[in-house]
Design goal:
The chain starts with 12 loop residues before the first strand and ends in a 31-residue tail after the last helix. Strands 2-3-1-4 form a 4-stranded antiparallel β-sheet, covered by helices on one side. It has 191 residues and is of the alpha+beta class. It has a single domain, classed as 2-Layer Sandwich (Alpha-Beta Plaits). The chain is globular and about 45 Å long. Helix 1 crosses helix 2.
């Protein structure tokens, strides 16, 4: 059996990756993105924290969460998010009933992979690299040609705050984008 060790730092900032079961493109449907957002909002009322950055892709999600000073329990929040979203699909009868014996035994649906990926943000440079990774991810996966074209991303919020130029990573018009180098993050992102 694998020995999973997670880093828990009160008040920490964490990069997280959650992946759908068998990479099912659940979030290619706007209705499911809406259900996810509602699940996140409910979870945040129960256990407050800040969502520093996020991107919703068809088959996985990336977040950067900043926890309150006395709290390190992002695992509980991830678990709750998965439960709330899964229940919302059940209520809408959007869940497949074909669930393996192993998943039934562990009381799991066929919505999420069992595990999730976590990385503790160490400093400002590490944070910037992970922000860039999140915001460039739709381009990396060939979903859009430029970060500003992806609707389900915090990129727009970061542009509005003046932290990114609107044409960052963009190839629209005459732009020749500088593509970020993510090789040093390959073991940290869980894709």
């Amino acid at each position: 059996m694998s020995n999973y060790r997670r880093s828990y730092l009160p008040g920490g900032v964490f990069f997280l990756t959650l992946v759908t079961y068998h990479r099912l493109p659940l979030f290619s449907k706007a209705e499911n993105v809406s259900l996810l957002r509602k699940a996140i909002a409910k979870m945040r009322t129960e256990n407050p924290f800040e969502i520093t950055a996020a991107v919703i892709l068809p088959d996985h999600l990336h977040f950067i969460w900043s926890l309150p000073p006395d709290d390190s329990n992002y695992s509980q929040r991830v678990s709750r998010l998965k439960v709330l979203f899964t229940r919302s699909l059940q209520k809408k009868r959007l869940l497949s009933v074909d669930i393996s014996a192993s998943r039934r035994k562990h009381r799991e649906s066929n919505i999420w992979q069992r595990r999730f990926w976590e990385h503790t943000i160490r400093n400002d440079d590490d944070l910037q690299k992970h922000l860039d990774y999140i915001h460039y991810n739709p381009v990396k996966h060939g979903l859009v040609s430029c970060p500003h074209l992806w609707e389900y991303s915090s990129f727009h919020k970061w542009v509005d705050q003046g932290n990114y130029q609107p044409d960052w990573g963009c190839c629209c018009g005459e732009n020749s984008p500088q593509i970020p180098d993510f090789r040093d993050l390959e073991n940290q992102v869980g894709e």
